[in-house]
């Protein structure tokens, strides 16, 4: 039996073991794990114990070890694994065959690193989503980085992905902005403010809104006017939005983020219709002048659908946005990326939408991808020294500066051309900011530290980017033509023997399992851990296995180890694919 294509090893091993069981227990869920490094074998099947229990319950007493023996006996002949042995308690240790490992490596070289097969879905992913007239803060940066990376992952898998920026461009904040604008700059329509001023302006109007009841009333009136499409208010609103939009775009351009803006305002007209429908279905409750909707589950907060002055809310636009994504976008999968502080909002939203019959849970998958807070090195919320929120532009600028300092400290400006230095600087700066975020479990808070993220050693972007440049440079050093390597990979009987070659190759083979796992859980840190392991295994391999032997005196190439070049190339391919998913741009020299 020959093996074609690339696939999840765990999935394939489960299939093989399933065949051994098929007649007796077709639905039994085979337990297959990666073996810990100290154990013999690459993978382990832990099902004998479970099966022995099932047999006992049906009256047959068979020990796990005996079950394991029977399992092994019934496994169909295949070229993927070496002959099997049982360990203690019927654990079955599995070693991948040399032939299989080599064929997978060759395939990853010849065909590139192919994604596992999936049922193509239409996915809407809502991320970044800053608020107009407010500065984009580090929480939005997290949403932007995590959301973009998830979108890249799903695109790589072949899904049809819609990236939406659900900007906060509607609602109460505009009431106060417009009311304050009217008082302070009656001539705004002819003379709009730049964003720096808009920030301060936002603060001023918020202060008035909080302190002055009469102002508050006018603010509410202004929102209602805006929501009723009053032309002058609409124009003012448009100008404010444009100013903000330009500032957001600068961040997106720097980080290479693609997004379609579809803010809360987009749903204004459909909101009215949906509210009618909810009223008709008797789902709205009139409470203290507001219309609210209660979720089915107890303990969840109700959604505020219409406020007492008639205005709509964040909840209302989320209801309308969800309907739009289901009905118009025809999404099979909807993902929201925000801080964990909004978990209960989304729980209520999903629950209410199910209650209203808008969501068919059997057809659509909906996820709230929540993340923790960004902390400073003092373990408190990341702030400037004066206690203000950090502007993202400043943060990115600082990253660029620190990354350049670091490269210069390592004397890289002597080795790299000015263009290469420029590329390395940006690659490292943005790469390390993204990587530091993504390599932490998103559900936890994470400590933002340039020193840590720019470290040469450890699970950092710098370390992995550097190993990538080493892997990339080898074929160049060996003067091997791409065609030579191609022919070799296609035709030769390849052998990998050195323990560090084998370790690297087997680490590489885990790629598809990692991809599958992170797609299920919508987390990215396991991918980062995987890339770090590859980089470490590569470094060990590189230090112990010559790829090219050169004459000491003449520098002439005496011998090229083609199978090692192949491993270098595939390592580079894997790392490049990983970087691509994480939104990191590697360089060939740094
Ligand atoms: N604008 C919101 C905020 O800054 C995030 C919006 C997230 N998306 C959504 N559909 N509610 O917190």
Automatic annotation (TrEMBL):
It is an enzyme of class 6 (ligase). It is found in: Cytoplasm, Cytosol. It catalyses: tRNA(Arg) + L-arginine + ATP = L-arginyl-tRNA(Arg) + AMP + diphosphate. Pfam families: Arg_tRNA_synt_N, DALR_1, tRNA-synt_1d. One of its GO terms (cellular component) is aminoacyl-tRNA synthetase multienzyme complex. Residues 11-96 form the Arginyl tRNA synthetase N-terminal domain. Residues 464-590 form the DALR anticodon binding domain. Its EC number is 6.1.1.19. GO terms for molecular function: arginine-tRNA ligase activity; ATP binding. It comes from the Eukaryota. The keyword DNA damage does not apply. GO terms for biological process: arginyl-tRNA aminoacylation. Its main location: cytoplasm. SUPFAM superfamilies: Anticodon-binding domain of a subclass of class I aminoacyl-tRNA synthetases, Arginyl-tRNA synthetase (ArgRS), N-terminal 'additional' domain, Nucleotidylyl transferase. Keywords: Aminoacyl-tRNA synthetase, ATP-binding, Cytoplasm, Ligase, Nucleotide-binding, Protein biosynthesis. Belongs to the class-I aminoacyl-tRNA synthetase family. PANTHER family: ARGININE--TRNA LIGASE, CYTOPLASMIC (PTHR11956:SF5), ARGINYL-TRNA SYNTHETASE (PTHR11956). This is Probable arginine--tRNA ligase, cytoplasmic. It comes from Artemia franciscana (Brine shrimp). The lineage of its organism: Eukaryota, Metazoa, Ecdysozoa, Arthropoda, Crustacea.
């Amino acid at each position: 039996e020959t093996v074609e294509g690339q696939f999840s090893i765990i999935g394939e091993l489960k299939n093989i073991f399933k065949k051994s069981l098929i007649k007796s227990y077709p639905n039994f869920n085979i337990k297959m794990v990666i073996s810990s490094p100290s154990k013999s074998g690459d993978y382990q099947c832990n099902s004998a114990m479970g099966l022995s229990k099932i047999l006992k319950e049906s009256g047959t007493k068979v020990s796990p070890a005996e079950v394991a023996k029977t399992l092994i006996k019934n496994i169909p002949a295949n070229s993927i694994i070496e002959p099997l042995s049982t360990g203690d308690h019927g654990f079955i240790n599995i070693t991948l065959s040399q032939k299989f490992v080599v064929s997978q490596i060759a395939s990853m070289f010849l065909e590139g690193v192919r994604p596992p097969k999936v049922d193509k879905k239409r996915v809407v992913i809502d991320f970044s989503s800053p608020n107009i007239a407010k500065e984009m803060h580090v929480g939005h940066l997290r949403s932007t980085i995590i959301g973009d990376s998830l979108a890249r992952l799903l695109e790589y898998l072949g899904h049809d992905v819609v990236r939406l920026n659900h900007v906060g461009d509607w609602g109460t904040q505009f009431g106060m902005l417009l009311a304050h604008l009217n008082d302070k700059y009656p001539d705004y329509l002819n003379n709009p403010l730049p964003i720096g001023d808009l920030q301060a302006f936002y603060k001023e109007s918020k202060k008035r809104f909080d302190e002055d009841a009469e102002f508050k009333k006018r603010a509410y009136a202004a929102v209602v006017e805006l929501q009723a499409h009053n032309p002058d208010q609409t124009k003012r609103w448009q100008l404010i939005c444009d100013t903000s939009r330009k500032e957001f775009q600068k961040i997106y351009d720097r980080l290479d983020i693609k997004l379609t803006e579809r803010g809360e305002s987009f749903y204004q007209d459909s909101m009215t219709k949906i509210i009618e429908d909810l009223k008709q279905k008797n789902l709205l409750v009139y409470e203290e002048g507001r219309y609210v909707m209660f979720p089915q589950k107890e303990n969840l907060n109700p959604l505020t659908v219409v406020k007492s002055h008639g205005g709509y809310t964040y909840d209302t636009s989320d209801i309308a946005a969800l309907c739009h994504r289901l009905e118009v976008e025809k999404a099979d999968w909807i993902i929201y990326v925000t801080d964990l502080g909004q978990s209960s909002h989304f729980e209520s939203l999903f629950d209410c939408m199910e209650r209203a019959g808008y969501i068919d849970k059997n057809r659509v998958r909906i996820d709230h991808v929540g993340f923790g807070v960004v902390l400073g090195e003092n373990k408190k919320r990341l702030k400037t020294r004066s206690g203000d929120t950090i502007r993202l532009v400043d943060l990115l600028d600082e990253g660029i500066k620190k990354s350049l300092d670091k490269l210069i400290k390592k004397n890289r400006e002597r080795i790299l051309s000015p263009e290469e230095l420029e590329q390395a600087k940006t690659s490292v700066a943005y790469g390390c900011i993204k990587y530091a975020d993504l390599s932490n479990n998103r559900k936890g808070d994470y400590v933002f530290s340039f020193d840590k993220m720019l470290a040469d050693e450890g699970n950092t972007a710098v370390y992995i980017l550097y190993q990538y440049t080493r892997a990339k440079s080898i074929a160049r050093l060996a003067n091997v033509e791409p065609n030579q390597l191609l022919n070799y990979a296609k035709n030769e009987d390849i052998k990998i023997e050195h323990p560090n070659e084998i370790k690297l190759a087997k680490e590489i083979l885990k790629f598809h399992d990692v991809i599958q796992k992170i797609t299920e859980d919508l987390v990215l840190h396991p991918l980062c851990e995987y890339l770090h392991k590859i980089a470490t295994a590569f470094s060990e391999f590189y230090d112990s296995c010559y790829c090219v032997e050169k004459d000491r005196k003449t520098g002439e190439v005496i011998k090229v180890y083609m199978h090692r070049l192949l491993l270098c190339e595939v390592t580079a391919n894997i790392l490049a694919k990983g970087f691509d998913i994480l939104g990191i741009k590697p360089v060939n020299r740094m």
